[in-house]
Amino acid sequence: MPVLLNPGTAPSPAMTIDGIPVISPQTLPVINPATGQEMARAPDCTYEHVDAAVLAARRAFPAWRALSTAERSAMLRTAAIILSEHVEALAVLLTSEQGKPLADARSEILGAAFWLKSFAKLELPIHVDEDHAGRRWETRHIPVGVVGAISPWNFPVLLSFFKIAPALAAGNTVVMKPSPYTPLTMLRIGALLGDVLPPGVLNMICGGDQAGPWLTAHPDIDKVSFTGSTPTGKLVLQSAASNLKRVTLELGGNDAAIVLPDVNVAAVAKDLFWAAFRNSGQICVAAKRIYVHADIYDELAAELQVCAAAVVIGEGTDTNAVLGPVQNRMQYKRVLDLIHDCRQNGMRFLTGGEPEPGPGYFISPTIVDNPPEDSRVVREEAFGPLLPLLKYTDIDDAIARANDSEFGLAASIWSGDVEAAVALAPRLEVGTVWINEIQLLSPFHAFAGHKQSGFGVENGLHGMLEYTLPQTITKPGKVER
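Given the sequence above, the corresponding structure tokens read:
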């Protein structure tokens, strides 16, 4: 049985189940990636904890669904205020467990608050399909039920609220499981929002490798929303098939950026550098392959080298640092393995190529000079500070190479002629194409992956509808005479 604590007496951190702080007899280490040392321990839930959280969400669902849109929206707005009021303390906690600079951690917390406020503004549509000859047909959208949500370690707060905000706004209840690498901030948020949301509406659990499968296979979960790797996403889909749960998957990407020869190189170089290396490259929609026209390749390569030389890498609490560590040792070793493969195959590094000295999982921004198209560094998603810079001479060839991937999350095109770039965008086999910008996501616009980058939609009204089921109602109408 879950170990329950009286409200207000739980040591930090604790899970939140049915509005009550809950601890577990077993714990997981949480590592500060800037030091490589354990900074805290988090609950490692049992199956009984998962079951209790799901049943609490099931009990809370009828009353939450029955509230008006205005009543639910008011609580979401209050939740957003709570996050904003606690932004400093939450940002420090997020930086300590994730590694990103404090300024970026603050932005992430405030971004989560913005997602809550934004989905509080959206309303589910009622579509009148037909209204004549004595009959009216309406299609409404009703909440799917209990949502099991799983978020990753790169943006553990914001990506959690990509799920929580639309799910709650649509009338569902949620069991949220953050990554075991970065659980602390979301556990704290679960406790804070326990004073805002009715018990059981938002349950926050934490656990190791077994917790995710327990949640996705649970027979009383109606929908799963997962953000993470493509191989894990496939396992989630298999698990959800047991009772035909609805599923949204936001998975891996190997996003291409195509730089046309008419750009102002000096003007776009900094944007392209941060497109690849923001959050130390740990972004699903980072520019992970940059195709540069041969006429400007050398000039852009030189500008990117200047950008890399100016970057300060360090612990997130250092106000001078703009790049932090890779978040966990497993990912750190994977990026180093890809760098080692480049070196073993005689590739040239424009920047980086070595881990930073000292403790922690730091790798300096590494740019590989025009590696072969079939090399691992081009074909695989590094998800770290490693970028292949690639040369092309023909735009058709560049588009074909960009599309030659199992992934199809996003891409970007950089050009002095915006309309020419827009004309090329439909040829890219991805869910989002940015023109002369990148990584702009909004709670009001759909975000969806193609190919093996995703299943379903996040954000916008399309994303909110993912947490509903269509229901058609017919009734007698006015008979025309």
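The CA atoms of residues 69 and 363 lie 47 Å apart. Try to locate this feature in the token string yourself.
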